Hints:
Blueprint: H1 2-19, H2 29-54, E1 57-65, E2 72-80
Antiparallel strand pairs: 1-2
Helix pairs in contact: 1-2
Amino acid sequence: MSMGFGIFLLALGAILAFAVQVSVEWIALTTTGYILMVAGVIMIVIGGVLMSRKRSSVTTQHTQVDPAAGEKVTRRESVASDPVE
């Protein structure tokens, strides 16, 4: 989601900075375009970091011997990190 939004901001900023030739008194569209492009690049970088963190996982394995039956009991836990976006 954040990478897609970053690409959207980058494209919108490029359109405002390079393609729109309209002069508006209350806002500088070229400067706004550059600001949106920088924000888009930051969002793409943040999205990449979050995606790399999302792929990490932790696996824990416990092995014990049941004293009553004498059999080996193995318990496995797998936890995948899910960062908040």
